[in-house]
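Consider the following assembly input.
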Amino acid sequence: NAGVTQTPKFRILKIGQSMTLQCTQDMNHNYMYWYRQDPGMGLKLIYYSVGAGITDKGEVPNGYNVSRSTTEDFPLRLELAAPSQTSVYFCASSHGGLSTDTQYFGPGTRLTVL
Amino acid sequence: AQKVTQAQTEISVVEKEDVTLDCVYETRDTTYYLFWYKQPPSGELVFLIRRNSFDEQNEISGRYSWNFQKSTSSFNFTITASQVVDSAVYFCALTDGSGNTGKLIFGQGTTLQVKP
């Protein structure tokens, strides 16, 4: 199993550009999450999904969109990139989403907006 | 609201020293789960431990041990005989109690530097 994979690993965007961060998991997990990690800070939840076709906002959803058309994939879309979106983005997944369940994280995507 | 506080921003020790990373949490939930994750310099997040609110037994795994005290809302992490490879950022996290979504609330992290 590859676990949770994310592409790209690094990206530089200009202000106003758009991009999609890809996330794929091969563990047949139902629940998937997107977090961002700002320098010197902990992770904050952007969006999450409890299954294909179901998504919901986390703590910091503004400026982002998600979709979940399959169990495996959970892409994060940035529209009109802003410098405040410079961060490291982590995707995670878990089997059932119950509070007992452990989230497994991808390697992260480092995004810089100039 | 749920909150996790890791008051120690950075800790520096010399190899073979013992070190304790503090984690204090706030929650109104009676059932909750606490986690520790390690983020080495390579950047990935590595799961270390999960503990539920009904289990206050200390846990030991090799050089790692965890002390969960509900009375003080703390879930501290001790590394015995630290090694250079333990150098990383360590995050404590708490599950959000709003249903079975598994959403995590993270502390700000403690950067541990172990010097040879």
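Chain B touches chain A through 27 residues (CB under 8 Å). Ask yourself how this observation constrains the way the partners meet.
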